[in-house]
Predict the structure.
Amino acid sequence: MLTLAGHHGDVFSLAPPRSMVWTGTLAAAALAWLAGYLSGLTLTPDSRGLALAFGLSALLCLLWVPNASGRIAQLVRMIEALLLFALIGVLGAVLSYLAMLHSSGFADALLHRMDHALGFDWPAMRSYVERRDWLFLAFEKGYLACFWMPLAVFGLLWHAQRIGDVYRYLLAHGLALAATVGVFFFFPARATFAFYLAPGAPLPGNARHYGEIIAGLRDGTLTTLDLTNLGGIITFPSFHAAMAILFVWGAWPARHFRAPMLVVNGLMWLAAVPLGGHYVVDVIAGSAIAAGAIVLAVRLARGAAAAPAAASVPAAPGPVAVGAA
């Protein structure tokens, strides 16, 4: 359990799974900094300022955030949770850049063959959605929901007075992102738009963005990172699909909002293929990672919570020997 000095000089412990989330985040930050330094990557001036602001905010949270209950304390914890979500996302993106930089080749042909073996044809699926404006719009709204969905999840948990559950959600989110980046290193890909469309064909904005990032990392022209303009370059597994499942699970305690959460995140999950440039196997793999991360996060949280309780139980008295003096 992580122990730090508070703002009054007292010492308090970060209760699990909050301590796990912070420990993992700080470890990821150290890894990203060290790997980036050794790889010759630098940050833009604005990004250095943002990194400093992240660091100071993290220090403030670690030293000041109260353990007490109450609506104000819950509000502070929700702000901390949003900071952690942003930190985890930025670190995951930077680590995915490093994974692409140090990997070799592309796995698109393999992913295409896997899709084909399952009976899926990405060009036909993309064409089907493009010919139906209402479906394209619905998928687009669902796909972009990933930008505001964290606010919805944390807000619903706060409304349900389950704000403590955000740390369990963040633990699963971080575990899923770490696993996704790890697998991505072994299966780097350019995504479906670059694989299926003819050279010079017009690309959607997101495909152009991550295509330029991948090309720059591989040819060595991208050496300065802008933390305000990071792109999602992971194809396999799909973290969009993983997030869709994690968002639904995270907000599940808010019973009255389960249906709309299922609808919006279902659209996000489905849109990952025709709009996000993912292969179908990306979505399957991302879903499996999300399920595994949820199971692991729940077990870790329960185990960490049970350990202090078990330690506080007094030991049973041993047998008393009776004999003559």
Observations:
- Residues 280-312 form the longest helix (33 residues).
- The longest strand covers residues 3-5.
- Residues 40 and 311 are 47 Å apart (CA to CA).
